[in-house]
């Protein structure tokens, strides 16, 4: 990471790119759709760059902007989070019951299932995500939101911010508080150390634990530690141990699996 300035989340991704660009970085399962998607650092960085270019070129997102997210834990959500932070902008995540707070965001990215409720708020800038396993667009949708999957494809694989990213700028809005971009990295690094997450770890976390822990824990802490992530949505508890064995998981976050280290728990 550059020594001349505090790190940002983009620096964490770049460090993983330098360390091992082709190794699996995020492996995502959805036990409802049967999806298994695996992204290397290179593939994730490509999605991040395209997302950042889309936000910057189409919505003028940059330092001082706020991007609302109404998305579940997902590999595409990881790309969106890192894309927003690449622009130097702030992320504002909300649960469905707090959607009305998103009216203050400059642009909102939402799961297609949440679009009808968000449309009633009269949001000017709204992007919908199908969360399709192959990154395809929304089917059967006729509302005013733009389709993230269709829009993002036409944008470049390399991102350069129009304005210098300030590590002291707001990166995440949490209720009444906030964290700067550099504080996100500092918090993630401290958390990874406190949990005992190390380079080379392969960390299994399910959707519920990841949602409760937040993106600093499920996304940034593994990046800070040099670990990879096995992220499970709608996970069937009975199959998690088998999956952990198949994916060569070395640690879990917020889960107890026999014979596998639980991060943050005494050995």
TrEMBL record:
Species assigned in the record: Modestobacter caceresii
Protein name: Acetyl-CoA synthetase
């Amino acid at each position: 990471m550059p020594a001349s300035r505090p790190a940002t989340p983009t620096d964490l991704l770049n460090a993983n790119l330098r360390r091992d660009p082709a190794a699996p970085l995020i492996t995502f399962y959805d036990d409802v759709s049967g999806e298994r998607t695996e992204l290397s650092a290179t593939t994730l960085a490509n999605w991040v760059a395209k997302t950042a270019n889309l936000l910057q070129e189409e919505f003028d997102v940059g330092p001082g902007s706020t991007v609302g997210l109404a998305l579940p834990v997902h590999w595409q959500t990881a790309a969106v989070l890192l894309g927003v932070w690449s622009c130097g902008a702030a992320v504002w995540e909300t649960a469905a019951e707090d959607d009305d707070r998103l009216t203050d965001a400059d642009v909102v990215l939402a799961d297609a299932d949440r679009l009808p409720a968000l449309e009633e708020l009269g949001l000017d800038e709204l992007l919908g995500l199908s969360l399709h396993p192959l990154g395809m667009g929304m089917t059967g949708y006729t509302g005013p939101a733009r389709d993230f999957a269709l829009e993002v494809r036409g944008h470049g694989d390399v991102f350069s911010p129009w304005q210098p990213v300030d590590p002291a700028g707001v990166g995440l809005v949490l209720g009444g508080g906030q964290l700067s971009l550099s504080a996100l990295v500092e918090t993630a690094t401290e958390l990874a150390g406190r949990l005992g997450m190390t380079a080379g770890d392969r960390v299994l976390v399910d959707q519920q634990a990841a949602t409760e822990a937040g993106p600093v824990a499920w996304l940034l802490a593994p990046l800070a530690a040099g670990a990879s992530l096995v992220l499970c949505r709608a996970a069937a508890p009975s199959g998690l141990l088998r999956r952990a064995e198949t994916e060569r998981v070395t640690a879990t976050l917020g889960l107890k699996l026999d014979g596998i280290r639980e991060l943050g728990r005494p050995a």
